């Protein structure tokens, strides 16, 4: 069992983290969080790796991704109203994510046993008794929250001691372990699960068809041919297209 452990970055270039020592007392921080040591996560950077306990067992995050798309999202605390609706909505939509080869994994800065008790409420509120079936990371030490910068300014200032709650961060990660999208909401505002699915559809379409998507695009609507593709090549690849401006051409896929 990995159980409760401390993680640290081995290098900024690799964005990998290693377990340094086991936690021996819940709620005690065993390292000083230094802003200079925090990895800079950007679009298309390799997501940091970590090992942590979850409601479905211990994980190595890179192994958990293992050739799938992954959505990692954080929550301020267990047994909170907005978080309960969010986790339930994602759980209800899990078949949609499964169909897109997407794994879900949540995080809250409390312990796994408390998460497991909370899951019963989520099942009762949102799943009509159906089983909640994706893992929630236990991050009592706030190590993963620090690694992914999942806190607001007040939380970051308190992260070496004091009350720290994670904000509503969302990371969409592709099978090559690259971060493809980052969304951050304040603790007071619930997320839009349909938007997460919409973005995944757009990213996967871009990867498979070499197109980009316009404002408010949803599956089935026209897409945009990138300006790097000539008209001749666009005709050969996509067939008919609408040319609004030399740089703005719509087509169907």
From TrEMBL:
Which CDD domains does the annotation name?
PRX_1cys (cd03016)
List the catalytic residues.
83 (cysteine sulfenic acid (-soh) intermediate)
The UniProt entry, under InterPro entries, shows: AhpC/TSA, Peroxiredoxin_AhpC-typ, Peroxiredoxin_C, PRX_1cys, Thioredoxin-like_sf, Thioredoxin_domain
Q: Fetch the Gene3D superfamilies from UniProt.
A: Antioxidant, Horf6, Chain A, domain2, Glutaredoxin
Q: Name one Pfam family in it.
A: 1-cysPrx_C
**Which residues belong to any copy of the Thioredoxin domain?**
41-205
Work out whether the entry's keyword set contains Cell cycle: no
Keywords on record: Antioxidant, Oxidoreductase, Peroxidase, Redox-active center
- Cellular component annotations (GO), alphabetically ordered: cytosol; mitochondrion
Sorted alphabetically, the Gene Ontology BP terms of this entry are: cell redox homeostasis; cellular response to oxidative stress
A single MF term (Gene Ontology)? thioredoxin peroxidase activity
What family does this chain come from, according to its entry? Belongs to the peroxiredoxin family. Prx6 subfamily.
Matching PANTHER family, A to Z?
MCG48959-RELATED, PEROXIREDOXIN PRX1, MITOCHONDRIAL
Task: Please describe what this protein does.
Answer: Thiol-specific peroxidase that catalyzes the reduction of hydrogen peroxide and organic hydroperoxides to water and alcohols, respectively.
| Identification of the protein by name | Thioredoxin domain-containing protein
Q: Which species is the source of this protein?
A: Kuraishia capsulata CBS 1993
């Amino acid at each position: 069992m990995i159980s409760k452990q401390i993680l640290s970055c081995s290098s900024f270039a690799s964005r990998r983290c290693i377990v340094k020592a086991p936690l021996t007392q819940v709620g005690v921080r065993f390292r000083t969080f230094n802003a200079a040591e925090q990895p800079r996560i950007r679009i298309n950077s390799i997501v940091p790796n970590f090992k942590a306990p979850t409601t479905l067992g211990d994980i190595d995050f890179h192994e958990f991704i293992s050739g799938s798309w992954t959505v990692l999202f954080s929550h301020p605390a267990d047994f909170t109203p907005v978080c309960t609706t969010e986790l339930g909505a994602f759980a209800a939509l899990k078949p949609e994510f499964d169909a897109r080869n997407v794994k879900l994994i949540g995080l809250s800065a409390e312990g796994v046993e408390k998460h497991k008790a909370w899951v019963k409420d989520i099942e009762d509120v949102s799943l009509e008794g159906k089983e909640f079936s994706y893992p929630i990371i236990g991050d009592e030490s706030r190590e993963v929250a620090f690694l992914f910068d999942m806190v607001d300014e007040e939380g970051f200032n308190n992260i070496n001691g004091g009350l720290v709650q994670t904000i509503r961060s969302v990371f969409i990660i592709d099978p090559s372990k690259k971060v493809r999208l980052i969304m951050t909401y304040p603790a007071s505002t619930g997320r839009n699960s349909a938007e997460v699915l919409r973005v995944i559809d757009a990213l996967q379409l871009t990867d498979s068809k070499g197109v980009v998507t316009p404002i408010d695009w949803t599956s089935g609507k026209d897409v945009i041919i990138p300006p790097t593709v000539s008209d001749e090549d666009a005709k050969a690849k996509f067939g008919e297209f609408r040319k609004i401006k030399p740089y703005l051409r719509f087509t169907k896929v």
